[in-house]
Structures
1.
Amino acid sequence: MSELAGKIALITGAASGIGLATSELMAAAGATVVMADLDQEAGNNAAASVERSGGRAVFHRLDVRDAQACSALVESVVERFGHLDVAFNNAGISGSTSLTEDQGLELWQRVLDVNLTGVFHCLVPQLRAMRAAGKGAIVNTASIAGTGGAAGAAAYSASKHGVIGLTRTAALEYAKHGIRINAVCPGYIETPMTVGDRSIFTGPHLDRAVSAAPMRRLGRPQEIAEMVLWLCSDRSSYVTGGQHIVDGGVTASC
Ligand SMILES: NC(=O)c1ccc[n+]([C@@H]2O[C@H](COP(=O)([O-])OP(=O)(O)OC[C@H]3O[C@@H](n4cnc5c(N)ncnc54)[C@H](O)[C@@H]3O)[C@@H](O)[C@H]2O)c1
């Protein structure tokens, strides 16, 4: 598998879950992966583990809420490697669950700052770098909560709807510059966000989600990574502006 041989890929939220699985898969497909995350220790360990498996990876600590840091990272990638071919803007947080009237402005702002403005902060310098090169592929992580409502998660759902709007608009603007921009919309995936210490689900909540799912299981992070790899490879050369649902059929019912 060498779909990304010689390519430079930048992945945010790369220390854990979907970002880590995608870093592993892209490195196995031949890319040099710049893994960025807020969590320095987990990020260093993650990059070391990709390298131990024979991939090429470097870790950079990044807070996607910091616009300047996002621009500086993209610039440093282009300076060091000469080009940026692929970007996966994936860092995200879930917030907590409550009725919309109880979400509160602090939670709303915190979730929007990371999930939506964080994607914007990364996307802008990536578009500039890729426009100069006349090519590139970008995937932004939305969610099935970005294609429909998610009771108890108003801020999260609004942020992910925003990611889809931003993705579609950028796709329209940059198609003529050779840049494809897509959103991936995971369903319930087994990561620290759903089953670990960052989980917003209580046991019964998650059990209900699993038993309502057509496949009766959570998705694996690698199953999202496969879609992201395809969207970033030349195999999807006519695909842009899409919202690509990977949810084991959860949103298929009427
Ligand atoms: N797990 C799911 O069921 C699911 C479903 C739909 C969408 N998603 C989305 O997938 C993405 C990845 O989530 P995951 O499930 O792998 O969760 P995760 O918690 O395992 O990973 C998220 C990563 O983002 C990093 N991060 C958080 N805030 C950051 C910031 N300000 N700057 C840089 N990095 C930051 C965290 O340190 C962590 O490593 C998120 O955008 C999430 O909303 C997840």
2.
Amino acid sequence: MRNPLPNHQAHAKDVCIIGAGISGLRAAHILSDPSLGFNVTILEARDRPGGRVYQTADLGLPVDLGATWIHGTEGNPIAALAKKIGCSTVSCGAVYSICDASGNWLDRQVARQRYEEVWDILEKAMEHSMSHRESIPDNAKMMDFFCDELESKSKSQPDPDSYISLMRQIGEMWGAFMGDDWQRQSLKNVWLEAGLEGDNLFMASTYKGILDFLLETTRDKCTLRLNCEVTSIISHSPDVVQVDSTDGFSAVFGQVIVTTPLGWLKRNHDAFYPPLPPKISNAIQSLGYGNLDKVFIKFPQPFWNDKIGQPSMDDQYANTAAEPAFPIESLFLQPEYSQNTNPAKWRTEIISYSGLPDQYAQPIIMFFVYGQWGRHVTGLVRGTKPDSEEYRRILYDLFHPYFSKLPNYDPASANCQPSDFLLTDWQNDKFAGHGSFTNEPVGSGDCSQYSDALRKGMGEERKIWFAGEHTSPPGGVGTVAGAYWSGEEAARKVASSHGLRPSSST
Ligand SMILES: Cc1cc2nc3c(=O)[nH]c(=O)nc-3n(C[C@H](O)[C@H](O)[C@H](O)COP(=O)(O)OP(=O)(O)OC[C@H]3O[C@@H](n4cnc5c(N)ncnc54)[C@H](O)[C@@H]3O)c2cc1C
């Protein structure tokens, strides 16, 4: 412990926000309203704001390396913001492009129907979880509920075994939403994942518009300190918190909002002194943290996407005028055809950037990797230089089995040879908490209590609040909307502890 006991009166309205991701920026936006009279300082460890909202233009036009979807539009503040500031979004409904285990594309109608049936079961699981959450045992898996439902549904099918096998493989996509293998996800808590109603929107113009808007609303109204990695958060008394960072910054504040990711909190509980109370440290340790990563592969031409209105190969790829020839989102089920590089038959799914509106379209296929598959892929590549032959060769070998299944693939054509690869490694990013976002693993207990405990924070006792997607109310955990809500809530609590109420239009 450093410094003598500071005068808490002098610092009462000095607020420190640790982390300049969406939650931190939203909190700063509210608290930096001059009429409230707070002095707001944001301390950010990276050399940029945005956290897990981040873009690169290394492959051509900007792409999102972190968040890229708006999950549900009803009551979603991010959907409203995107509309207000004119972000370009693409509505993605049911997936109807599914490559089966043997590498053949399912008939689109069958694919769509099965995909929708899978969602019906997932929604049933959420409803069941909601209404029976108290009695559902801790070790119950969402996957087992899904498979039991399949058993009974399959009875009316002409070939129950292949129906079960197909549906189960599609159902595994739940893992991508959780950033972890679906067999690790809890039934007791799956109700927390019931998202908002309305479309799933893909941010064609990327999340940059949202980030820029939030930055603009705080510009000149608060201090944003970059390259400032906070290492300790010390409560000298119930009213004064000292914050120290690796760049030598040390200051005392009347209130602190900690928005560092759950994965960071898991590894840095000793940053807090006195130690975190058991309720909070238990919440941090019990919630799960996923590992979703993205692999972008660029080609000279989008060979898989014939011109709109000109169906390629066969009827299977026929399109309507409103849709690209090859859809934006497709699934690859457990592959039997990539024994050398994927003997465990981990599934994957892709986004085709060539299907975006013209000004955002690019000849890029992006693969989602997560869970064991994600660890395997990033583990193989880590340590190699992105511009090296080895990096390219590893990613080529891993993903060739899939992109070679795209329509029109011709191994002799230069247009079918990748020109660039890019792999994210959130799992190796300490400021992202070595992962992607929060989930609810089997055996974790009642996760709603953990989020409640984190949302309550230690504001009353120690003037330390938590925000971030992991503290979101149900429906927002793991999302940008949840991060935004959580920043808003923490800011309102800080204001209200001074008897202030931020303007409702902020
Ligand atoms: C690959 C991927 C895909 C995703 N896809 C989607 C999606 O499509 N839709 C969606 O809604 N959500 C998605 N998410 C989740 C979404 O990005 C997050 O929920 C959201 O951005 C979290 O915001 P946050 O403010 O809670 O945390 P963060 O954005 O992580 O912000 C926390 C900040 O704290 C900083 N920090 C960390 N440690 C320190 C320290 N010691 N000192 C100072 N600062 C520190 C970090 O650098 C960071 O800027 C995705 C995430 C990933 C990784």
